[in-house]
Design brief:
Blueprint lengths: L1 E4 L7 E5 L15 H5 L4 E4 L4 E4 L26 H18 L33 H4 L3 E3 L4 E2 H9 L5 H8 L12 H12 L3 H4 L13 H5 L16 H6 L3 E5 L2 E6 L7 H14 L1 E5 L4 E6 L3 H8 L12 E7 L5 E11 L2 E6 L4 H14 L7 E4 L4 E7 L3 H8 L14 E6 L2 E6 L8 E7 L3 H11 L5 E3 L2 H10 L48 E8 L10 E7 L5 E13 L4 E9 L8 E5 L5 E7 L14
Parallel strand pairs: 9-19
Antiparallel strand pairs: 1-2, 3-4, 5-6, 7-8, 9-15, 10-13, 10-14, 11-12, 12-13, 15-18, 16-17, 17-18, 20-23, 20-25, 21-22, 22-23, 24-25
Length: 617
């Protein structure tokens, strides 16, 4: 029910009305939201106890003129006669602005006026309420905000209306303050002994009416659940039979099966051809981040485990990047462009996250470093030309010297190939003679076509990501996300050589010195070869003798990457194994989900060309 008391009294109950529901009005106020969303200002109407659009400060367009007109009740007029006259005047103004005139007989209609008594703003009910009663004087009926809460906010120093809103949650319910904001502003003004206009209003944000989470999420499903990113060469891949693989938000060719050919056979063909002749890979998805400034070298020394500041312009260096917890999060080749500029290559899935990682540390910890970073991944198409015939292909295009003496392994150079302005990196993720060539994104398809023509009599063949994985696994190169899972440190992977002993610090160094990180029982990277030439199941665990404390079989390692190698004619794998490097030649059991137990021998993780002779020719 409802108990009625005198507004001017102390709260004594005069009458009680039993009822099932109470409807409440927040008073008359114009809907100023669209006006405010567009940048219009508000003015306080003392007589109406409301904010209304300030016609002298309308939303302004790019030309400096107002482009929104509030009319009738939206402008703060509530008597029908006033609404009609104001609407007519607003229409006249809009028509005149557009260069037209209303007809001479177009006059505003009239309505009978119904006089109303002056509005009496009531911010406290009842006025003489004692402290105990004031404790139950509600302002926001959805978020249970009381007058005492707003007064406490002012007492605690939250005198900005935006701060008071967040301190109390006033107006943050689904009504978006429609029932409570004016009363709350008045209460805050009273607590500060200030006028309501001096307090101001909170920010009006769309939508005007609350909408369901389902409506917000409705678009993120099916084909548009996540943006699909395509390289400049996407259409060529699609037209030439690419079988697609999602890699982050990108779509990359997994393989190029020919008519009547299985995907597995296509991958085997691509590996064999790249090792013996010439392969081409679309590497445009690899992250490319410019790091520039007088402190760029100093900054990269802190980000990477090895030293980057000593890198000479024209040279490249492989680098590892760890989180502050010491775990490996990305790897890639860094090229020094000039004294103040580096280009950092990241994994396909790491471009955005590593760029954000760089920005976070620059903005929150190393804000005094004079460094600028920019993600330029999509500015370039990057093509890997790989295999024994790679140099011959580029020499057929002509335009720059790509010989071993001029462009040695882990060097880069700017120049022109076949009339295309490009940057050539002499780097290899396959162990073969390899060049990665970056051109402007808009030139990517034309350059790819030129390479295909030049390589036609050299056995050129495109290859996909699965071929890429086999090539790198044969060489024992790690892959972020395969050999790493968020718990792996560089030392687990035998990458101590990529950790500088010359610098005092880098992200993750102290974490890697913790007792758990230097525990000798951490699993280490090894190569694995099945005893019967079969392929190990991906992710399979190696079992040892006995059981652990939970009564389960004792796990002593797991497979991180596994493939059939056409180069070696057998299954190869990489894995993390307890005391692995000290157990060379030992045979482990790997139970599969198919009921079969696979046996694999621990071997060196570099299966092919351990000395690197093929990539250095």
């Amino acid at each position: 029910g409802v108990e009625v008391c005198s507004q001017a009294g102390e709260g004594a109950v005069l009458e009680t009305f039993p009822c099932d529901a109470v409807a409440m009005s927040g008073g008359w106020s114009p809907v100023v939201h669209l006006w405010s969303h567009c940048g219009g200002k508000l003015t306080w109407d003392t007589a109406g106890a409301m904010f209304r659009p300030d016609v002298n400060n309308p939303p302004l367009g790019a030309d400096g003129h107002g482009f929104v007109t509030a009319a009738g009740a939206a402008g703060g007029f509530f008597a029908l006669d006033d609404i009609l006259h104001d609407a007519h005047a607003a229409a006249d103004g809009v028509v005149t602005t557009l260069g037209f005139k209303l007809p001479a007989d177009a006059v505003s209609p009239n309505a009978d006026r119904q006089e109303e008594a002056p509005l009496a703003p009531v911010w406290m009910m009842p006025q003489g309420a004692n402290v105990k009663l004031r404790e139950k004087t509600w302002l926001d009926y959805q978020n249970d905000v009381k007058v005492s809460d707003v007064r406490l906010a002012a007492q605690e120093g939250f005198v900005s209306v935006e701060h008071a809103k967040r301190y109390t949650t006033l107006g943050m319910a689904t009504d978006q303050g429609k029932l409570s904001n004016i009363n709350g502003l008045a209460t805050l003004a009273g607590a500060m002994d200030a006028d309501i206009p001096a307090v101001g209003t909170t920010t009006f944000r769309p939508p005007y009416h609350p909408i369901s989470m389902g409506a917000i999420a409705g678009e993120a499903r099916g084909d548009v659940f996540q943006p699909i990113r395509r390289t400049p060469l996407h259409d060529w891949h699609d037209a030439n039979g690419a079988e697609w693989e999602p890699v982050g938000q990108w779509r990359r060719p997994y393989a190029y099966p020919r008519k009547g050919e299985s995907t597995h056979d296509a991958v085997m063909r691509e590996v064999t051809n790249t090792r013996s002749k010439l392969g081409m890979l679309d590497a445009s998805t690899l992250g490319k981040i410019i790091v520039k400034g007088p402190d760029a070298g100093r900054f990269l020394d802190m980000l990477y485990t090895n030293m980057m500041s000593t890198l000479k312009p024209g040279k490249c260096r492989y680098g590892l990047m760890c989180s502050e917890n010491g775990f490996l999060i990305d790897d890639g080749v860094v090229a020094r462009i000039d004294d103040d500029t580096f280009l950092c290559h990241t994994t396909t899935g790491g471009a955005e996250s590593i760029h954000q990682h760089m920005e976070e540390w620059l903005q929150t910890e190393w804000w005094d470093f004079n460094v600028y970073v920019a993600n330029v991944t999509e500015q370039y198409a990057q093509i890997a030309v790989v295999g024994p015939n790679a140099r011959k292909c580029l020499e057929k295009l002509g335009g720059m010297d790509v010989s071993k003496d001029t462009l040695a392994f882990m060097e880069w150079a700017d120049g022109t190939l076949g009339g295309f302005k490009c940057r050539v990196y002499r780097i290899s993720f396959s162990g073969e003679l390899s060049y990665e060539i970056a051109v402007d994104a808009g030139q990517g398809q034309a350059f790819w076509d030129a390479l295909m023509v030049a390589g036609n009599d050299l056995g050129v063949m495109p290859y996909g990501t699965e071929c890429l994985h086999i090539l790198r696994a044969e060489k024992g190169f790690i892959m972020i996300g395969d050999e790493t899972d968020g718990t792996v440190i560089p030392q687990d992977l035998g990458l101590n050589w990529a950790i500088s002993k010359k610098k005092d610090d880098y992200l993750g160094k102290r974490a890697q010195q913790r007792s758990h990180m230097v525990d000798p029982t951490r699993w280490k990277l090894v190569g694995l070869e099945t005893t019967d030439g079969s392929t190990l199941p991906d992710g399979a665990y190696a079992v040892g003798d006995g059981e652990n404390e939970n009564g389960q079989r004792n796990m002593i390692g797991r497979v991180t990457s596994t493939y059939h190698s056409p180069t070696l004619g057998k299954g190869i794998a990489m894995g993390l194994v307890l005391n692995g490097p000290d157990r060379m030649g030992e045979v482990l059991d790997f139970p599969g989900t198919d009921g079969k137990t696979y046996q694999a021998k621990i071997v060196d993780p570099v299966f092919y060309d351990k000395e690197g002779a093929k990539q250095n020719v």
